[in-house]
Every structure is written in structure tokens, then in C-alpha cells.
């Protein structure tokens, strides 16, 4: 949730600048997940993989995960969608790229 609050100011400013410069773009937060029908592009896959690697917990240097490996969760990631209102194209960026 902090991620959204920290980037909300930037998102609002991008929308204000788009209107002032008459660029016909709208920016919004989106939640994306990797599925066979909606695959994530490489940049967004790297963000998701880094989040999964960061989520491993250790206690005194020992991995506290169960002995049986569980499949990785298909967690969604928060990204920014830039929507061109003239031609209907949308672009999705990671928060780092935005």
C-alpha cells in the first residue's frame, strides 16, 4: 500500500502535465499477473522475480521454508498503465521505469 501512496503524487503530476501539454495520455495504477493469455513483458517479469527472491525468509541463516518446495506464487505486480486516448494504445511500465 505504501508503494501506491509514494507514487500517487508522481502519477497525478503526469496526468496534470498530460492535460496541460495536450498530450491525450492518461496514467493509472494497474495490477498485472503473468498468465498464458496475458504474459508479462521482460521488464515486468524481472520485477516480479526480484520480489519473489526478496520474499525468502531466513532465521539465523537457515531458510525457514518447508522441506517440500511449493510452487512459486503467481503474485501480481503493481505497474503504471499509460493510455493514449487518441489511438487506444496502452503501455505498461514498472514503477521503477515510471
Describe the structure.
- The chain has 98 residues and is of the alpha+beta class.
- The protein has one domain (2-50, 73-94).
- It contains two helices and five strands.
- Strands 1-4-5 form a three-stranded antiparallel sheet. The protein has a two-stranded antiparallel sheet with strand order 2-3.
- The longest helix is centred in the first third of the chain and has 19 residues, at 2-20.
- This is Beta-galactosidase.
- It comes from Hydatigena taeniaeformis.
Question: Keywords, please?
Answer:
98 residues, alpha+beta, 3-stranded antiparallel sheet, two-stranded antiparallel ribbon, 2 helices, 5 strands, 33% helix, globular, Beta-galactosidase
Helix and strand layout, with pairings?
Blueprint: H1 2-20, E1 25-32, H2 42-54, E2 58-59, E3 62-63, E4 77-84, E5 90-94
Antiparallel strand pairs: 1-4, 2-3, 4-5
Low-confidence stretches: 67-71
Number of helices: 2
Mean pLDDT across all amino acids: 77
General shape = globular
Radius of gyration: 17 Å
Beta percentage is: 25-35%
Protein name: Beta-galactosidase
Organism: Hydatigena taeniaeformis (Feline tapeworm)
Quick take:
The protein has helices spanning 2-20, 42-54, and strands at 25-32, 58-59, 62-63, 77-84, 90-94.
Amino acid at each position: 500500500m505504501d508503494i501506491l501512496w509514494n507514487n500517487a503524487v508522481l502519477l497525478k503530476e503526469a496526468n496534470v502535465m498530460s492535460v496541460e501539454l495536450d498530450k491525450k495520455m492518461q496514467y493509472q495504477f494497474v495490477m498485472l499477473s503473468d498468465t498464458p493469455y496475458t504474459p508479462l513483458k521482460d521488464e515486468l517479469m524481472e520485477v516480479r522475480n526480484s520480489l519473489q527472491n526478496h520474499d525468502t525468509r531466513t532465521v539465523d541463516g537457515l531458510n525457514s521454508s518447508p522441506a517440500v518446495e511449493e510452487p512459486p506464487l503467481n503474485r501480481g505486480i503493481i505497474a503504471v498503465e499509460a493510455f493514449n486516448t487518441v489511438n487506444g494504445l496502452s503501455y505498461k511500465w514498472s514503477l521503477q521505469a515510471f
